[in-house]
Amino acid sequence: MLNLVLFGPPGAGKGTQSVKLVERFQLIHLSTGDLLRSEIAAGSALGLEAKQLMDKGILVPDEVVIGMIRSKLTSNPQANGFIFDGFPRTIAQAEALDNLLKELHTSISSMLALEVNDEELIKRLLNRGKDSGRSDDQDESIIANRIKEYNNKTAPLANYYSAQGKYTGVNGIGSLDTIFNDLCSSIEKLK
Ligand code: AMP
Fold first, then answer.
1. Which residues line ligand 1 (CB under 6 A)?
2. Ligand 1, closest atom to CA 32?
3. CATH number at residue 20
4. How confident is the model at residue 133 (pLDDT cuts 50, 70, 90)?
């Protein structure tokens, strides 16, 4: 199985590149942000609870997202592999993911990290907010919180995967196609 963690701060381009990678490598896209937004749209209790935090740019509790990923992994036993987008975001989530994959007799193949500076991220998120209608993309103080959460809780995952020899950095600034080609060549090298 090819199991990829697509990593990077909010606005790095993970969602956009995931869609293209899923098509190229026939993988299942698991975005915890998308799963949470579906729960909100469905008006579930979990969605309502998550919305309170998401609207402030704060991470939802580990057990909520781990539970969602567990159910997606176990309901897709025939998958070629998965792209994890926006997950894991904490060390506890990364450890839980390693354990879940072990139960399925597989593991993470690589973390592909899109590297983009803060100034470019804020510009991209505010632009995305105009089109996507996402409330957490429209307010600079919420964006600042999301970047703060990323720096405090998520950035340390780069070391977690480096220690396993699984970190691959990719320049996240440039044309969509150039970034996609760089990601594809990193993935080809894993095969
Ligand atoms: P995203 O679409 O990945 O930018 O996520 C939007 C929001 O959903 C984040 O700001 C968090 O509040 C929440 N969220 C998404 N994925 C996770 C995760 N793996 N752990 C905790 N919170 C998450």
1. 10, 32-33, 36, 53-54, 57-60, 65, 86-87, 89, 93, 136, 146
2. 16
3. 3.40.50.300
4. confident
- Number of folded domains in the chain? 1
Q: Which two tokens stand for residue 186?
A: 């990193």
Q: Which of 29, 36, 146 to mutate to test the pocket of ligand 1 (most atoms within 8 A of CB)?
A: 36
- Looking from the CA of residue 146, the nearest atom of ligand 1 is 10
Contact 36, 116 (CB under 8 A): no
Relative orientation angle of helices 91-103 and 62-74, to the nearest 10 degrees: 20
- Closest listed residue to residue 179, CA positions, set 103, 112, 128: 112
Q: What is the CA radius of gyration of the chain?
A: 16
- In this structure, which residue's CA is closest to atom 1 in ligand 1? 33
Count of Cβ atoms closer than 10 Å to residue 80 Cβ: 12
Query: What would the pLDDT profile of 14-68 be if each residue is shown by its tens digit?
Result: 999 999 999 999 999 999 999 999 999 999 999 999 999 999 999 999 999 999 9
- Give the residue numbers spanning the domain of 163: 2-188
If we measure between CA atoms, which residue out of 105, 190, 132 comes closest to residue 15? 132
pTM confidence score: 0.95
Residue among 58, 60, 64 whose CB has most ligand 1 atoms within 8 A, to mutate: 60
